[in-house]
Amino acid sequence: MKQTVLISLRNQEEGLVRLIGVFRRRGYRIEKLSMSINQADDMKILVTFSCNQLTEHQLLHYVKKLIDVVTVEVVDDHSNFAERYITAHQSA
Amino acid sequence: MQLSGSEMIVKCLLEQNVDTVFGYPGGAIMPLYDALYDAPIRHVLTVHEQGAAHAADGYARSCGKVGVCIATSGPGATNLVTGLATAFMDSSPVVAITGQVATSFLGRDAFQEIDIVGMTMSVTKHNFLVRDLSSLAEIVRMAFRIAASGRPGPVLIDVPRDILLAQGEFVPGFSFEKENASTDVSYQQAVISAADAISNSERPVMLVGGGIKAGQTWEEARKLADTIGIPAVSTLMGLGAFSVKDAGFLGMTGMHGHKTANWAVSEADVILGIGTRFNDRITSDCSKYVQGKTIIHLDVDPAEMSKNIPADIMIIGDLRQTLNTLNDLFLQRPSVDFSAWRKKIANWRQEFPIEYKASQLNAPWMMKHMSENIAGKSVVWVTDVGQHQMWAAQHLQIGTPREWISPGGLGTMGFGLPAAIGAQIACPDKQTVLVVGDGGFKMTGMELYTAINAKLPLIVVIINNQALGMVRQWQELFFQQRYSATILSRFDFVSFSHACGASAVEVFNPSEFSSAFEQALQSERAFVIVANVETGDLVDPMVSPGQSINQFVR
User: Are A58 and B117 an interchain contact pair (Cβ–Cβ within 8 Å)?
Assistant: First the structure.
């Protein structure tokens, strides 16, 4: 099963590495990733990864535990959503 | 107020009521050591940075305050990693401050430059590289807040040398945000479901883990067990939350758990797991573990829910609040009769008595002897990792929560001695006794010199079986007695201890041990007892790996 999440993160230098590290350490495979930083220095990251339903919840908990992470939302689809969303975020 | 970065760190440490730090100086961290020179903070110089990290961890576990360790950049910082990982796995609040090369050198592979923030991301709760002086004080305050709040853990702050030296405006302040108690509907419903499940059960068991100690909620857990009349068992990390003298406490459960405790867990229809992550050493085969049981899981960390075993009822939040709410609920309900269950447990207790042999020197007898002879004195027992750790967990008469310090999660050999130093410094009015194997003692044994310099009346009991005993035990049972790399040649621990400045005596039988321990209790400086035991002594009981926890190899 594939799942896509939209993560909002404070734009600390280590934030992205920390986030990706959680996926790697916990054994999740990232299939797609888009990111943007807006003028207010918020970072939005859209990640599609493979998992099963039980482990999806687990991963979300691990991601939420990261101090830099502000919000995590499960979204429907990556490809249709990403371009539009990321463009909108950058110009915000 | 204009201060240097180093002076700001010292001010922030004082704001947090830090009285002791453990560390080792070096090039990049020198400005901070200069500021510490005049500061009203005790600095304990260890032999190795790993010792500083374990000592800070031992300090934190024994008194509940945040432990602090300091190291320089490069190798100083990398030497902290094992200690931080140990603290991380056992949720111990530690703040590590490392020096870093100056910001202008970052990323150039400068002398003693290492990306310690990158390296420690997976073994810290959070970490910081300080990039400008203006954020330094707030980062230090935040580090303490993160280390101590929610599920505690280690936090590392990496500070470049130029920031330690730069001058800037320091605004005193102390901020602490308390996490809000849970009040949402799903939480309330989960608590009621948990109470219902216990009320409708016939054979409930409370399983307490290290989270009870981290959350300082042992009183609430004991009260709840008493109100419900539910028997309790403990993980290795939870030992001390209940006293071994509590009538309803059945002992440690898990791979080397007491047989009564393991049987009770196996036969239970409800497990009330509090502050435990249902680690593989506790559950053995997960599918067999949960069979026929309702699992209620209480934890502050949502990521622990259904991580290792699926929980039927999950209650996420502050343990104190949950335990009190449950207790209030049960006080309003008619009491449940668990007498048939208690009778069954009493039968197991009779069937599996704990027996001691005093015919020759052996670790279980020594644990019992020490417990009896130290009675009345406040004590902190510290262990390393291996057979001695299990003997200590099984046979010491642990009565209070901060009395037991053991590196359960990471299983770090070499933790014991420096952690015991930290504990003895944090609790000068208590007697710290380290129980350690001969292999683990050798790993960080030079810290005995630290104990002498710090004038600590530490008692060290080396269970000397001239082997890496736990690995050897597995080789005996599962690797056809092929003792690959586990048999050690004789080492003169007494001369070594004398060289460090400690008193030491070697014993071979119970009466020699008895008088040595009496001498050690009177000693004002570190006292080492080298207790020679048979190489072939094995830890009993032992659950067959991959089986139910009531199926024992021995």
Answer: no
Domain residue ranges in chain B: 2-169, 185-351, 363-532
pLDDT digits 0-9 by tens, B63-89: 999 999 999 999 999 999 999 999 999
Q: Answer yes or no: same fold for B185-351 and B363-532.
A: yes
CB contact under 8 A, B303 and A61: yes
Tell me the CATH number for domain B185-351.
3.40.50.1220
Interface of B with A in 306-345 (CB under 8 A): 306-307, 310
Is residue A67 within 8 angstroms of chain B, CB to CB? Answer: yes
**Per CATH, which fold does B2-169 belong to?**
Rossmann fold (3.40.50)
Phi, psi of B145 (to 5 degrees): -65, -45
pLDDT at B480 over 70: yes
Find chain A residues with C-beta within 8 A of B117's C-beta.
Answer: 14
Q: Which of A10, A12, A18, A53 would best serve as a mutation to test chain B binding (most B beta carbons within 10 A)?
A: A18
Tell which residue, B102, B100, B158, B99, has the closest CA to residue B126: B158
Q: Given an 8 Å threshold on Cβ–Cβ distance, is B303 in contact with A67? A: no
Element containing residue B350 per DSSP (H, E) = helix B339-351
pLDDT grade for A40, boundaries at 50, 70 and 90 = confident
Looking at the domain that runs over B363-532, which CATH code has it been given?
Answer: 3.40.50.970
* Closest residue of chain B to A64, computed from CA coordinates: B303
CA distances in angstroms from B4 to B9, B22, B31, B41, listed in the order given: 9, 21, 9, 18
**B246 touches A: beta carbon within 8 Å:** no
Do B488 and B438 meet the contact criterion of CB atoms below 8 Å apart?
A: yes
Pair A44, A36: CB distance under 8 Å? yes
Strands B155-160 and B126-129: parallel
For B416-433, what is each residue's pLDDT tens digit?
999 999 999 999 999 999
For residue A11, the model assigns a pLDDT of: 73
Sort out which chain B residues have CB atoms less than 8 A from A54's CB and list them.
306, 310
Domains by residue range for chain A, with CATH = 2-91 (3.30.70.260)
Does B290 touch chain A if contact means CB atoms closer than 8 Å? no
* pLDDT for res A92: 57
